[in-house]
């Protein structure tokens, strides 16, 4: 089962693309190190305070995939400098 979560996020304290990218790089690096998922910024690359992240996970059951994706979303929510706004999940 393949699960893909797309979440739009706001980075309110970013005053430049450099600020935004430093926050995203830290989050993406930690997610990749801690979880067995793929993660990437997929939209709003040229916008200072807005981003869209795509996270994909693959496993043998939907329940296991859903748990892993939820752990990643909870981990992203633990960062005070980023706020998740719209989250969509797709199953393949």
From TrEMBL:
Question: Which Pfam families does the entry link to?
Answer: DUF503
Record's superkingdom? Bacteria
Q: Entry's PANTHER family?
A: DUF503 DOMAIN-CONTAINING PROTEIN, HYPOTHETICAL CYTOSOLIC PROTEIN
Q: By what name is this protein known?
A: YlxP-like protein
Say which species the protein is native to.
Bacillus gobiensis
